[in-house]
TrEMBL record:
This is Phosphatidic acid phosphatase type 2/haloperoxidase domain-containing protein. Keywords: Membrane, Transmembrane, Transmembrane helix. SUPFAM superfamilies: Acid phosphatase/Vanadium-dependent haloperoxidase (SSF48317). Signal peptide: none annotated. One of its GO terms (cellular component) is plasma membrane. It is found in: Membrane.
Length: 332
C-alpha cells in the first residue's frame, strides 16, 4: 500500500510539472486533481521574453543578450523534458506484457538495425526546425518595419522554437504511454527475445503467458520489442513535416515574399521525401507493422494541429505578434 501511495504521488508531481510546461500551448485553465494551470504566455516565463525585449544602442550587446537567452531557454527546456521523460519511462510506465503467441509468424521476422537511427532522427526533428525558424523569421524581419526589430527577432524565434520543442516533448510522452499501454509485439520479437525453448512448450498451446516466457536476451531489448504501437520514428518525422507545412505555407502566403515561397517549395519537397522514407523503412526494417506507422501519423497530427493549426492565418497574427507592419498581399 505504501508503494502504491508513493507511486501515485510521484505520478501526480510529474503530471503537474508537465501540465505547467505544456499549458501555455493549449489551454486557458486545466484542472486535473493536483494540476491547475492558468494560461501564461511563454514570453512571460522565459529569459528571452523577459530580458531580450528591449534593444540596446550597441548592436553587439543586443545580439549577445539575445543569443545567451536563446541558448539558456532551449537548454533548460531540453534538460527538463529529457529528465521528465527518463523518470516517466523508467518509473511510471512499463509495457503491458502480452502472452507469446505460438503460431504467429508475424513476430518471427529477423532483427535488423534501424535504417534511420535515433540520433539522426533527433537531429532532424529537433535541429533543423530551429535553423529553419531562425531563417524564416530573419526574412520576415528584414522585409518589414517596426521598433526593436533585432531584439524582437531573437524573442520571436526563441519562443516559437520553444513552443515546437514542448509540443514535440508532449508527443514523445504520449507515444511512450501508448506504447506501454498497448504492448504490441514487434515483428522481430522472437529474434529480440531469443526464447529459451528448453523451458517453454508451445506444441499444444495457442500462447504462453508472459510470466512463463523466458528470454535469453537483455532486458532492455526485450522491453523495446514489446512497444511496437505506435511508431515513434514515424510520429517524430510527421511532427516535423506537419509543423513545417503549416508554418512555411502560411508565412509565405501572408507575407507574400518570393524567397519564402521558394524556401517552402524546396524544404517541403525534401522533408516529404525524408518522412516517407522514414515511415517505409520502419516496416521494411521489421520494427513496425503498417498500422503502427498509421498510428504514428495520427499521433503527430493530434499533437501538431491543435497547437499550430490556428496560427499564422491573418496579417495581424503574423505581423502583430512580431510588432511589425508590412504590406498586405492582395490575395490574403
Amino acid at each position: 500500500m505504501l508503494l502504491v501511495a508513493n507511486t501515485s504521488e510521484f505520478i501526480d508531481k510529474e503530471f503537474s510539472l508537465l501540465c505547467y510546461l505544456v499549458a501555455p500551448l493549449y489551454i486557458r485553465r486545466v484542472s486535473c486533481n493536483t494540476c491547475v494551470a492558468e494560461r501564461m504566455p511563454l514570453r512571460r516565463i522565459t529569459l528571452s521574453g523577459r530580458l531580450s525585449a528591449k534593444e540596446s544602442q550597441e548592436v553587439w550587446k543586443t545580439v549577445a543578450r539575445g543569443l545567451i537567452c536563446m541558448v539558456l531557454d532551449i537548454a533548460i527546456t531540453l534538460a527538463i523534458s529529457i529528465s521528465l521523460f527518463y523518470m516517466f519511462a523508467g518509473y511510471v510506465v512499463s509495457p503491458y506484457e502480452r502472452p507469446l503467441p505460438c503460431n504467429d509468424d508475424s513476430i518471427k521476422m529477423p532483427f535488423k538495425e534501424n535504417t534511420i537511427r535515433m540520433k539522426h532522427l533527433l537531429v532532424v526533428a529537433l535541429g533543423t526546425p530551429f535553423f529553419i525558424i531562425c531563417f524564416v523569421e530573419a526574412l520576415v524581419y528584414r522585409h518589414s518595419q517596426g521598433p526593436n526589430k533585432l531584439a524582437n527577432y531573437f524573442v520571436t524565434s526563441t519562443l516559437l522554437y520553444l513552443k515546437y520543442e514542448l509540443t514535440f516533448a508532449l508527443c514523445v510522452f504520449l507515444m511512450e504511454y501508448l506504447k506501454c499501454t498497448f504492448g504490441r509485439l514487434r515483428p522481430h520479437f522472437i529474434a529480440a527475445c531469443q526464447p529459451d525453448w528448453s523451458r517453454m512448450d508451445c506444441t499444444e498451446k495457442e500462447s504462453i503467458p508472459a510470466s512463463q516466457t523466458y528470454c535469453m536476451n537483455d532486458v532492455r531489448r526485450v522491453r523495446t520489442a514489446r512497444t511496437s504501437f505506435p511508431s515513434g520514428h514515424t510520429a517524430a518525422a510527421f511532427h516535423v513535416l506537419l509543423f513545417l507545412g503549416l508554418y512555411l505555407t502560411r508565412m509565405a502566403r501572408i507575407t507574400g515574399l518570393p524567397s519564402l515561397y521558394k524556401t517552402r517549395n524546396v524544404l517541403l519537397t525534401i522533408f516529404s521525401i525524408w518522412t516517407a522514407f522514414t515511415a517505409i523503412t520502419r516496416v521494411t526494417d521489421y520494427w513496425h507493422y503498417p498500422t503502427d506507422v498509421l498510428g504514428g501519423i495520427a499521433l503527430a497530427a493530434v499533437c501538431v494541429l491543435p497547437t499550430f493549426g490556428w496560427q499564422w492565418r491573418t496579417h495581424e497574427e503574423v505581423y502583430g505578434f512580431r510588432q511589425l507592419w508590412g504590406e498586405r498581399p492582395h490575395f490574403e
